[in-house]
Amino acid sequence: MKKIKKSGTHKTRKANVAKKTAPLQTAAGKARAEGLRLFKVAGRPTKEQVIHVFGKAGIAWTWAARAKAVGMKSAEEVARRFPELLKKPSKSSLAAEN
C-alpha cells in the first residue's frame, strides 16, 4: 500500500524578511521621469529626428529648453507637437536668436 501524506502536518516557517520599501524619488529622479514621459509623448524620437528639429545642441537640451528654442510655452506642448515640427525643413522651427 502507498503511504498517504496528510496535508498540513508539517508547518513551514517563513523567514522574517522585512518588506523592502521603494526609496523616495529624488529631484533628479523626478526630472528624469518627466523627461522620459515627454519623450514618449513626442513619439520616442530618434537622435537624428531631434537633430533635424532642434540642431545638434538640441540633443543635450531639456524639453523646457527645446520649447523655449521653438517659441512654445511649455515642454508638454513641444512634445505633443513634435511630429508636426518634424515635417518642416531642418531647423526651420527654431525661433530667431537675438
Quick structural gist:
By secondary structure, the protein is mainly alpha-helical.
What does this molecule look like?
- It is a single chain.
- The protein has about 100 residues and is an all-alpha fold.
- It has a domain at about 30-85.
- The chain is built from 5 helices and no strands.
- The longest helix is centred in the middle third of the chain and has 15 residues, at about 25-40.
- The protein is elongated, with a radius of gyration of 26 Å.
Rg calculated over all Cα atoms: 26 Å
Q: Low-confidence parts, pLDDT < 50 over ≥5 residues?
A: none
Shape: elongated
Tally of alpha and pi helices: 5
Helix content: 40-55%
Mean pLDDT: 86
- The amount of beta strand, in percent, is under 5%
Secondary structure topology:
Layout: H1 27-41, H2 47-54, H3 63-69, H4 75-80, H5 82-87
Provide key terms for this protein.
98 residues; mainly alpha; 5 helices
